[in-house]
Amino acid sequence: MGSRTTRFVIHAFAALTLVVPSRAIAAQAKRPPAPWAPHRTIAVGATLQDTLAEHDVLLAADSTYAQEWRLAGTAGATVTIDVVSEAFDAYEFLFGPGLEGEVPQDDDSGGRCNARLTVRLPQGGDYYVVVTSRNRRATGPFTLSVTAGPKPKSLARCDR
Length: 160
Known about the structure:
Blueprint: E1 8-13, E2 16-21, E3 40-41, E4 47-52, E5 57-59, E6 64-73, E7 78-84, E8 90-95, E9 105-106, E10 115-120, E11 125-133, E12 140-148
Parallel strand pairs: 3-6
Antiparallel strand pairs: 1-2, 4-12, 5-6, 6-11, 7-10, 7-12, 8-9, 8-11
């Protein structure tokens, strides 16, 4: 198992809370219900600024805060999702229809500790971008953007 399998997702079924490695989610028939509602919605072509804060959901398995953003996707569309922060080492992953086999996720492809994830959406429907950090209990401002089409990975190293 690589570093991608060390990320964890917390999800709840009724009163039972499970801690599941992200690869295990592939066995689920659909996106597991999150223990929180999506923070907001972002559209392709949009850029927004927000803050990862102590009032956000704490993913207990790795002690990181997280926000979930809903993205309406079109079947066959390629999108690039960037999370940029000077305050923390950005990390992101994506749930949605047709992504059950492998949960797309990224740590540093945006360069300088920023996350960049380019994905071809296999089906139309609601996708969920989860913004989090590689650092335990990290908080601070970030910029989230979704653009149509691919972008190259950055070669700029993360030196935090």
